[in-house]
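I am going through a labmate's work and have reached the protein record below. What it holds is a sequence and that sequence's fold in token form. Please read both lines and tell me whether the tokens look consistent with the sequence. Do not assume that whoever made the record got everything right. Thanks in advance; the entry in question is below.
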Amino acid sequence: MSEEMKNEMTGTPETMDDYAAELEESYKALEGKQPVFEAAEDPDGEKWQNFAQMLEDKTVINVKVKEAVKGGLVAFVDDVRAFIPASHISTRYIEKLEDMVGKHLDVMVITADLEKKRLVLSGREVEKSKRDEAKKQKLAQYHVGDVVTGKVESLQPYGAFVDLGDGVSGLVHVSQISTQRIKHPSVVLKEGQEVKAKVISTENGKIGLSMKARVSEETAREEHESFNYKETGTISTGLGALLKNIKL
């Protein structure tokens, strides 16, 4: 499981602040390569209003990469120069930026600053959005109470991530692994081990699993079945019945 997916499972989202330093450094290389206008005199003011709307609506557009520069790629949207940071080209690592020149990318606007003439695009956000939608559809197949089978893909101090297949993972918190208290998942589990667990939550796009709950239910059912017997005869305390088979 990638760090990005672990962050999603544990609730540690990324923000644009994570890329602020990268953007500033990249824009230094771009300064002087495009004209600067006062906002009130900008002949492209209407275009920038449109970019701002695209940002708000998360509109997906297709652009052609014009060139590779330090820290990213350059494309044009409605004849306005736009920058795609290297970390926002794709969810996968792009080793050679030059290989992207001439290619078309689906992107969305993540920064539209008219005053600084900064139009920033992201292909990565589009890919994440598509992936999240696909994940949402897959998660809809799981319901609280379902018993699922999967393989342990990683062990963390707080629990175990279980691969349920088709790109879906669930987390068994350390408190839900065993009916006995354990300090670390490795006491009971190992990576690659097949386990069964009960779905106990599907909130916020995350699947919470419990091995303990499934074991407890199995134990309770076995105990119930051991006492679930049927009478095969009749019992009578009458004197006639007691003496019926006695020969004198």
User: Anything to note?
Assistant: Residues 133 and 175 are 30 Å apart (CA to CA). Confidence is low (pLDDT under 50) at residues 34-39. Strands lie at 60-69, 72-77, 80-85, 104-113, 118-122, 147-156, 159-165, 168-173, 194-201, 207-210.
